Structure of Serine protease:
Amino acid sequence: MPSRRSAARLAAAAALGLASLAGPVATAGADDSPAAKPNTVDRLKAADLASTIKLDNCSASLVRFPTSKDTDQAMMLTNGHCYEGGFPAAGEVIVDQPSSRDGSLLDASGNEVASVQADRLLYATMTGTDTSLYRLTDTYADIKSSANSTALTISDSKPADKSKISIPSAYWNKTYTCSVNGFVGTLREGDWEWKDSIRYTFPDDGCQTIHGTSGSPIIDDSSLEIVGVNNTGNDDGEMCTENNPCEVNEDGTTSATKGQNYGQETYWFTTCVADDNTLDLTKEGCLLTKPAS
């Protein structure tokens, strides 16, 4: 798939070199009781766009950790390259910064049911992974009450190879479907490298995602939990250039396939969750890239 970046961003990139990305958008609330999970599954099977968020240049989703409570402030997940402040530099990790990023929360049919707004950027980077996580102003209970939207759960485990996945894009009101086709130890694009990236089946018309699908959640079709975030693909067949990621082999050689698409794993977030459901990058076993000391 072409790079998950939006058409607007690409136009800016042509003029400015590296375009600044619009920030990730907020996520909506969820009933965190065990009894609520079957309802979430049924809802997602009926329409994949439920609880996705449309940003001005990217896609995003309303998310929760497995341990999140209804009274917690909701969260929104998207790509690091969708950060409103521009592409984080290689090696840069942004944590706990004010944000007023907003987006449109969609229902199962792709209709806007609420506007959500962030008050905090919890985490953003394009190093090791390509993710941004925002805290919203409303709680999960607030969003459930006002918009009848339940947040998607970030899985606490790595996706399985060959598992079937769906990639709902709020930006385009379209859901892509295919399967996981292995993992890439190091994926390189321009100045950035990502670890253990999800490779999609190719050739496969079901996952030919396009610009604007950046930040879309990758949902496991069996559990209906988020296992990744869609982030890039090789547009032109070039090697390791922007919008043309390459796979770095163990011997240091590189390979690239025009049209091959990728995403980033998200279970890393669950390895960094503190007892109060906040992110703690100092937690033992936390896999997220840390800021330079």
